[in-house]
Amino acid sequence: MWGIFLESVVIFKNYMGFHQHRYLAFLYLGILLYLWFAEKDRHRRAVFVYAPTLLLVMFFCPLFRKLFVRLLDDSETYYRLLWLLQMSLVSAYGVIRLCAAHRRIGTALACLLILFGGDYVYDSEHISKAENAYHLPQETVDIAEMIEPQEGRITVLVPADLIYYIRQYSSNIELPYGREMLISRWAYHHPMYEAMEEAEVIETETFVELAREYPCAYIILKEDRETTEPLTAYGYEVYGQVDEFVIYRDLETGME
Amino acid sequence: MIQIAGILFWLVIIPFCIGLLPAGFMPEDERKPGIVLLAGYFTMWAVFGLVTIPVVVFVRYDNFILASRCFMALAILGAAAGVWLTYRRRRFGRLREWMSFADCIREMSVAERIEWLLFLLLLGFQLYKAVAYASFDGDDAYYVAASLIAQQADTMYTILPLTGRHTGLDIRHALAVFPMWVAFVAQKSHIHATILSHTIMPLVLIPLTYLVYYEIGRLLFGRPDRQAKAEGSGENLSLFMILMAVFQIFGNVSIYTNETFFLTRTWQGKAVAGSLVIPALLWLFLLLYSGRKKGAAAERAGIWLLLVCVNITAGICSSIAVFLVSILMAVAAFCLAIVERDYKVLFKMGAACIPNAFYVLTYLIVGYGYLFKQ
Known about the structure:
Distance between the termini of chain A: 60 Å
Oligomer: heterodimer
Shape of chain A: elongated
Radius of gyration of chain A: 27 Å
Largest sheet of chain B: none
Distance between the termini of chain B: 56 Å
Radius of gyration of chain B: 21 Å
Helix content of chain A: 40-55%
Number of strands of chain B: 1
Largest interface: A-B, 84 and 82 residues
Shape of chain B: globular
Number of domains of chain B: 1
Number of domains of chain A: 2
Number of strands of chain A: 6
Strand order of the largest sheet of chain A: 3-2-4-6-5
Number of helices of chain B: 17
Order of helices and strands of chain A: HHHHHHEHEHEHHEEE
Largest sheet of chain A: 5 strands, mixed
Strand content of chain B: under 5%
Structural class of chain A: alpha/beta
């Protein structure tokens, strides 16, 4: 039980960003404590004080965590229980209430606290200037437009860089494997992925044999990807190139 | 042009007109344009869930076409009924309030106008970032691709979004049909589902979320009486909205917070669940039990109906959200029953959770029913 409780503490700390020295949690907990003493309206107490407190107690309760994980068969999403606290809502309400007659100064101070205790969402490494209306990398759009079939569906082998995006452009382009291969903790195995990504140098003969099992109408490789022999020696032609991605078309499958 | 018309029709006109139906059963004070729009969205999503989930479970081929047609018919009927009901009963409530918007601004102090302007700048900044910047998330390879499959292949959850291979019904995700609603709007508006998800949906869902915060703030701070105005209650509301906007922009303390999901994964069902559905529940709790003049039971029927619709919406957003909102409903019911000293609160809130029970039952039967087959 103690171990489960400690796990909940770790989840809470990770959620609140303590490991990245983010301390907005203290603003929320401070406001919650303030409302315990200051909020007199019984209905608001029920919604903004009693309910969040009870939810916090439940979150740290080992028995509740066991039940949650058993029922949902999923321990990775336990942190979403903290969404029910609506910390920003409760904090904003508490700040306005606390500041009362000095609300403008109070709001300004609270904004500074949020600024220094929080983290600016738009400087995330996962956010970049959009290159098109799809919000997909432009090379993905260009490649997909080149290879998308007029009719029916084709299977295409793409590098890991493109796996997330290619099927967001066209559902007519199938893949031998998907994003599940890129999440190491999911522990999937796939011979095509191993041949494509894990080999330091692609062993062309085996690689082509595997690709033709699907069959892959196109193989896309980065131009600096090393192969024991060129793909063109095994019935492929260079169909085109987009930035660093070289598109090889399999002449034997006859698909376009 | 047709795309803009389609977007306006399915994302503004239809939800607003549908919203007139539950709004007709709300206290007149609450029959405002913002609440009508919110009510319309939750009702529309609930109807979509009720239509689409059975189709997903029982129909294997071309199920998206069937679900789309049924939903389209019901949506248009619902919108027409909302307009007819409002016109017939002349129950405009405070809908005409938006025509006196200029009067509203004239009554504000200079400071309050600046505060609202500041909030609008923060909101505008978020909308600009949502359109001009791309936010990478690995889950899009599943959810956005699922919407695209429905749009292009007319099938729901029988093709693996990650690879395109055929599969049996993916029960883990099949009941969370929010991506199918996105696909529906994409198809009817003739817009690529990925463009709709990444570029258009944030322009709808972000303001909708702030509308919920505004309504919560109005209940907490927006007293219409003169004394409240003298105390600057209107300024409290504008400052509250500024704080909420700042929290969203700087709430990215980890990748797990609902603030992070809200601005970086706006179009995904789980983000809608965390940022729109759960605050909407808090809003409705306050609306039902805030201690203001409560009105006749018939007048509050619309609010209870909305509570049911929000619970159903949780289910279409995410399977886990059903569990989460049920926990919130139970905890809130318990706390409200104690402060109200009325055990009937538990039964009423429990009744609003009945759709959640059906959802879980469906999930168990479809997901694990094979264990009982001989």
